[in-house]
Amino acid sequence: MRQRAxxxxxxxxxxxxxxxxxxxxxPGSSRGVLEKGDSSLRVELSPGLHFRWPPFAPVSxxxxxxxxxxxxxxxxxxxxxxxxxxxxxxxxxxxxGLEAVHRARSGRxxxxxxxxxxxxxxxxxxxxxxxxxxxxxxxxxALREALQxxxxxxxxxxxxxxxxxxxxxxxxERRAQLASLREQMQDTGLKILLxxxxxxxxxxxxxxxxxxxxxxxxxxxxxxxxGSLVSDGxxxxxxxxxxxxxxxxPDVHGVMDFLMKDPASGRMVPIxxxxxxxxxxxxxxxxxxxxxxxxxxxxxxxAEPIAGTMVSDRLxxxxxxxxxxxxxxxxxxxxxxxxxxxxxxxxxDDDIAYDEVKRFVEVTREEFWKLRSxxxxxxxxxxxxxxxHLTRILAATRNYHTIALDLLAKGQRRLTAVYYQGIDExxxxxxxxxxxxMDRISEEEFRQYSLTLERFYRYQDxxxxxxxxxxxxxxxVIVLSDHGFANGIERPRDATPSIEGRPAKxxxxxxxxxxxxxxxxxxxxxxxxxxxxAPTVLRLLGVPRAEDLQGQVWENAIDPGWLERFKPRTIxxxxxxxxxxxxxxxxxxxxxxxxxxNLRRLGYIGGGDSPDDSGEEAxxxxxxxxxxxxxxxxxxxxxxxxxxxxPAGTTASYHGxxxxxxxxxxxxxxxxxxxxxALAKMPHFGPALGGLAEIEHRRGRPEEALxxxxxxxxxxxxxxxxLILAVTRLFLQLDRAEEGAxxxxxxxxxxxxxxxxxxxxxxxxxxxxxGSEAEQVLKRAxxxxxxxxxxxxxxxxxxxxQERLPDLERALLSALExxxxxxxxxxxxxxxxxxxxxxxxxxxxxxxxxEDDPDHVETLVNLGSLLIDxxxxxxxxxxxxxxxxxxxxxxxxxxxxxxxxxxxGRADEARAMFDDVEEIDRERTELLNAIAYAYYLNGERQRAxxxxxxxxxxxxxxxxxxxxxxxxxxxx
Length: 972
Prior knowledge:
The chain is an alpha+beta fold. It contains 41 helices and 27 strands. 49% of the residues lie in helices and 13% in strands.
């Protein structure tokens, strides 16, 4: 019995073991492949317990989650040139596709097999093309297609956000050339801290400075050189900060818009480093062996390999929020491991506490937590509220500041560049709440948010102070902004600063610049250009200057002895030296669509730049060549006019921006081509129609120009001011002022909150001889916007002609109350006081304006004219000479100088001043009258009479000159 029981037990155990051997468990994140003895396959074992036969038949597991494939390889071009490739892509095995992968990998590890296939496709793609063709984005797209052809039969999905990059290693010739150039560098011993404060404006800084509330900016300005930093526009951050980093204009560097089209997915994506066509400071310094750290600079994702650290603009902007539990996309930092190193010290907007927010806005704890609850309940709408958006701004600012301090603590590089977005974003969210209270802002909103902007400036100044504490004594500090921001009464009354698609409406052309530290001379600098920044930085670091940089070194800010000691050396171009810019295709990156939504929410882009805009052609990306000409064929527009086909990957605003730059440079044909490409992408695009109107106007075809401008006006729901002004100017030129006034009246009824149409209607009515109607229209414009400079200027000229200037005093004082720093307002008030006979008060207004802007030519001329009237002639001559030195083309300076010399009995100097102008300008009646008066005062009546006759021959209707003629004839 015992033996039988034992046999039964053994048999039961064997059956149990056999049963267990026939079972197999597939984990929840996997699928399985079962191999049978006859080599047939039963695939797609879903997660869970499965029966298999024969027992112990091998089962292979495959992940259901995405796999990351990353690596580098060398590939050869058709002619044998070596190309380095870096790749990072996510792949996933699709349902029903396991059998093909399982058979093909033949037992090799899955990731190894997939990488082999990807690298084989890459090498084949490189081998099929010559080297020049490989250095175009089209080759990257071809590689994407080759990868897809490789993986599709295997049932493998490729993430369209894959990053693929070609790079050419340095040839022996380039290495030798670069080594030689490095020997020509001069070791200046200087380091540079470059701090970018997007949207920072002198007006507000000066107000805070007077109250002692921005001590670090105040000290840098007091001890250093300072002035404004101007841009030619468009006033959009990606363009401007790339200009600052490259020393090249947008039509050259290629970053022209907020959005571009990803060649792989066909979707609109935020602008990235992939679209830049020239080297930036970080590339140049790397080539010359100098280390740099760049933090948060616009359009630096994906981070490029540099000597130093690159933290791209995609790590933590409030436009692109940092999510602690989510791994950012490839290329967030260089080196990549730096992100893992710093990650634990970074914050999300959910880490921003009530006490931090309370510093900037007046909100109760209960209100704050209620607003924060919206983030989970309705996230898209939640961040439209300014308080929730503020938490993102604060988180992004803190993260990038933490990184900057960390990098400085590791050892200061030769150049440390840190960009802060906060002031600009705070402006776009809160500038309309600032004092004085605007009509559309409620008392409660004003109470909550009126001090947010200046409080953030104080916070930004504290952050700047923390950077300054960590740099060594050999550091030149450069602080700058890409543009200023309208404040006080200068703010547009007809739109908030987040107006969709027209963010630059609140931007002003003048930003700030400060240089402080060793070798910097203290004092005011006047205006500098954004393209000057890169040449100045490179000069201070001793790098040879490239001839194709478009800006100038700010030598007036630098000690002359130092400049003499370190004389610049010159080379042709940085782009032809050292490393060749990598050509990459990146997709949009993680969070790209959310970033686009945030850009739209802040007004940076409009509906026409939708990420799903069907009007955009999906094709491989092919940036226009440096001369601005788009590649490709052509297509026919209405009217059978043939224009180039729009290059894929660009937006209508991209081509509109490029056209505007070409137009400013005088390239009418190039500008027309780009405007027509913009219209091919977006018919009735207002800025393009307005630009074409300007081109027709410059070509002497005002009728055609007016037709285009009116078409743009008709199809623009909220027309740009430049288009409104263009229509006005053309109606005036064609002597159709009354018709133009009617058109502007129609526009006023369409957009009643806009000021520009009312001002232009007033201008046209004045030209039509309807002064009374014009006055009423301009007064209504001031009710919409009491600080409208355009309306005040037209009323000033009208009242001056009617000898009613004192009637304007109340309106001017009201405007000045809202904008006490306005130079034009103080000039007009000075003339009002002069008209009242109070010349002492008039002089005080002029001198007060000059304290804020010592180089304001119009103020210098006006004060000089006033001093002539009160016989303080030598003082007048000094001011007028300065005005003439600043702007030799301004004829008013010369006219007043001629009169002053005449009163001083210095007729020869007056005549020399007259003869110093071009011959064609000598027939300007103002100059002829001035020299005639100078000769009259000096008793040279025949000479005076000769110039009077010449003036009256140009313009007979001059009553005062006719009276002078009569006086001269009687005396002779």
